[in-house]
UniProtKB/TrEMBL annotation:
<protein>
    <recommendedName>
        <fullName>Steroid C26-monooxygenase</fullName>
    </recommendedName>
</protein>
<comment type="similarity">
    <text>Belongs to the cytochrome P450 family.</text>
</comment>
<keyword id="KW-0560">Oxidoreductase</keyword>
<keyword id="KW-0503">Monooxygenase</keyword>
<dbReference type="InterPro" id="IPR002397">
    <property type="entry name" value="Cyt_P450_B"/>
</dbReference>
<dbReference type="GO" id="GO:0008395">
    <property type="term" value="F:steroid hydroxylase activity"/>
</dbReference>
<dbReference type="GO" id="GO:0006707">
    <property type="term" value="P:cholesterol catabolic process"/>
</dbReference>
<keyword id="KW-0349">Heme</keyword>
<dbReference type="InterPro" id="IPR001128">
    <property type="entry name" value="Cyt_P450"/>
</dbReference>
<dbReference type="Pfam" id="PF00067">
    <property type="entry name" value="p450"/>
</dbReference>
<keyword id="KW-0408">Iron</keyword>
<keyword id="KW-0442">Lipid degradation</keyword>
<dbReference type="InterPro" id="IPR036396">
    <property type="entry name" value="Cyt_P450_sf"/>
</dbReference>
<keyword id="KW-0153">Cholesterol metabolism</keyword>
<keyword id="KW-0443">Lipid metabolism</keyword>
<dbReference type="InterPro" id="IPR017972">
    <property type="entry name" value="Cyt_P450_CS"/>
</dbReference>
<dbReference type="GO" id="GO:0020037">
    <property type="term" value="F:heme binding"/>
</dbReference>
C-alpha cells in the first residue's frame, strides 16, 4: 500500500477563512511548494483530494484534459453540496457550465460564445468600457474624498460591461449583482443567503428562473446580443437543452462579473500598498498592459479548479489513483519561485508574466480578453488622475475557496 504524503499546511486550501489571511495563506503555500508540492488533504466536511501547488505540475495536468477531467468535481465545495449538485447533474437538472463539462461537449458549447470574446468583438466593446470607466471615475470625484471602492465602484463597473454584452435591461442590474454575490459568496457570512446547501440551490434556481424567461423572449424576438446567441444556438442541428442554456448564462453573468470586480479592487489595493509602483505607472503609462497582468497575477480572482484522474497516474512521482481528485492552486502557482523572480513583489513592469489566473489549456478562461480590457480601460482612466490615495480603514477579503478577493476597500483620495 502506498503511503500518502499528508502535510498539515495543505489544510488551508479547504478553509474559506484562510483566504482572508494573505500572509498566513502564502506562508503555507510556500511551505508546500518547497516540501510537499503534491499533498493529500482529508478535512472533515469535504471529499479528500490532492493539493497541487507547483506551476509546472498544474500546467501539465491542464494539458492532459483527457486524463484529468473537470467532471464530476470541477471545484471544491463541501461534500453535502457536492453530493446534491452531482445528483442534480446526473438527473439532467443541475448546473452544467463550461467548467463542469469536458470535450467534446465542452468544445461545442465553447464555440457558441467564442466569437463574442474574439478581438473584433472586444474592439466593438472597447468604447463602452472606456465610457463606463469615465463614468465611474467621475463618480469617485463626486463621492470623495472617501468611499468603499470595492462595493461602490469595483462591483458595479464590470457588472455594467457584462450585462451590456448580454443585453439585459439596467433595471435588472441590482438583481444580477445580488445573485452573483450570493453564488460566489456562499462561504462568506456577509454574502451567503444561508449556511446550508439548500441556500445555494435556491440561488441557482433563481438564476435559472430569470434566464428561462429571458430565453423564451429571445427565441421569439432575437436581438443583437450574447443572450440571443445563446438562446438560439444549436449543436449538430439541435437547440441547446434548457439546462445547457441556463448554465451558459450563469457562467457568463457571474464569472464574467465577480472575477473582474475582484481584479479591479485588488489591483487598486496593490497600487496603494506600493506607491512607488503607482508613481512608476503614472510616469510611464505604456506599462499599463504589464501592470494589469501583474494585478491579475497577484490577486488571482479564481483561487482553484479541480480535476479527477480517469486512470492511475502520478504527479511529481506521487501516485494518483483513478477517481481521485486534484486541486490546482492557482494562488500558489502564481507565486512559484521557479517561475517568478521575487514572486511576492508587485512589479508593474513584470515581463514575462506566465501567471495561471485564467487557467491553461482547453479550459483557458473564455472571457480573459474582456477582463484584461475592462481593467485596462478603468486604470487607464483612473491612474493619471490620482493626486493622492491611501487606505481609510482595513481592507476585508472574502472568505472563499473558489472566486473572490477584496470585498471592502475603504479609501481616502484626491483626483485631478
Amino acid at each position: 500500500m502506498t503511503t500518502r504524503i499528508m502535510d498539515e499546511a495543505a489544510r488551508v486550501l479547504a478553509n474559506p477563512q484562510a483566504y482572508t489571511d494573505e500572509a498566513g495563506l502564502h506562508g503555507a503555500l510556500a511551505h508546500l511548494r518547497a516540501h510537499a508540492p503534491v499533498s493529500w488533504v482529508d478535512v472533515e466536511g469535504y471529499r479528500p483530494f490532492w493539493a497541487i501547488t507547483k506551476h509546472a505540475d498544474i500546467m501539465d495536468i491542464e494539458r492532459q484534459n483527457d486524463l484529468f477531467t473537470n467532471d464530476p468535481r470541477p471545484i471544491l465545495v463541501v461534500q453535502d453540496l457536492d453530493d446534491k449538485l452531482r445528483a442534480d447533474r446526473e438527473a439532467g437538472a443541475g448546473l452544467s457550465t463550461l467548467i463542469h463539462i469536458d470535450d467534446p461537449h465542452h468544445r461545442d458549447l465553447r464555440k457558441i460564445g467564442a466569437d463574442w470574446f474574439r478581438p473584433k468583438a472586444m474592439r466593438a466593446l472597447k468604447a463602452r468600457c472606456d465610457e463606463l470607466a469615465k463614468m465611474y471615475v467621475g463618480q469617485m470625484v463626486e463621492r470623495g474624498p472617501e468611499l468603499d471602492f470595492a462595493q461602490e465602484i469595483a462591483v458595479n463597473f464590470p457588472l455594467y460591461v457584462i450585462l451590456t454584452l448580454l443585453g439585459l435591461p439596467e433595471s435588472d442590474f441590482p438583481r444580477m449583482l445580488k445573485l452573483t454575490q450570493e453564488l460566489f459568496g456562499g462561504d462568506d457570512s456577509e454574502f451567503q443567503r444561508a449556511e446550508d446547501k439548500d441556500a445555494m440551490i435556491a440561488v441557482l434556481l433563481d438564476f435559472f428562473g430569470y434566464f428561462s424567461a429571458l430565453t423564451a423572449s429571445r427565441r421569439e424576438h432575437p436581438t443583437e446580443d450574447l443572450t440571443s446567441a445563446i438562446a438560439n444556438a444549436t449543436i449538430n442541428g439541435e437547440p441547446l437543452s434548457d439546462m445547457d442554456t441556463a448554465s451558459y448564462y450563469v457562467i457568463v453573468a457571474s464569472a464574467g462579473h465577480d472575477t473582474t470586480s475582484a481584479g479591479i479592487a485588488g489591483g487598486l489595493l496593490e497600487l496603494i500598498r506600493n506607491p512607488g509602483e503607482l508613481q512608476r505607472l503614472q510616469n510611464d503609462p505604456s506599462l499599463m498592459g504589464t501592470a494589469v497582468e501583474e494585478m491579475i497575477r497577484c490577486i488571482v480572482p479564481v483561487k482553484e479548479f479541480m480535476r479527477t484522474a480517469q486512470a492511475d497516474t502520478e504527479v511529481r512521482g506521487v501516485p494518483i489513483a483513478k477517481g481521485e481528485a486534484v486541486l490546482l492552486s492557482y494562488v500558489s502557482a502564481n507565486r512559484d519561485e521557479e517561475v517568478f523572480a521575487d514572486p511576492m513583489r508587485f512589479d508593474v513592469g513584470r515581463d514575462p508574466n506566465k501567471h495561471l489566473s485564467f487557467g491553461y489549456g482547453v479550459h483557458f478562461c473564455l472571457g480573459a480578453a474582456l477582463a484584461r480590457m475592462e481593467m485596462n480601460s478603468f486604470f487607464t482612466e483612473l491612474v493619471p488622475r490620482i493626486k493622492s490615495i491611501e487606505l481609510a480603514g482595513e481592507p476585508e477579503l472574502m472568505a472563499t475557496t473558489f472566486v473572490g478577493g477584496v470585498k471592502h476597500l475603504p479609501i481616502r483620495y484626491s483626483l485631478r
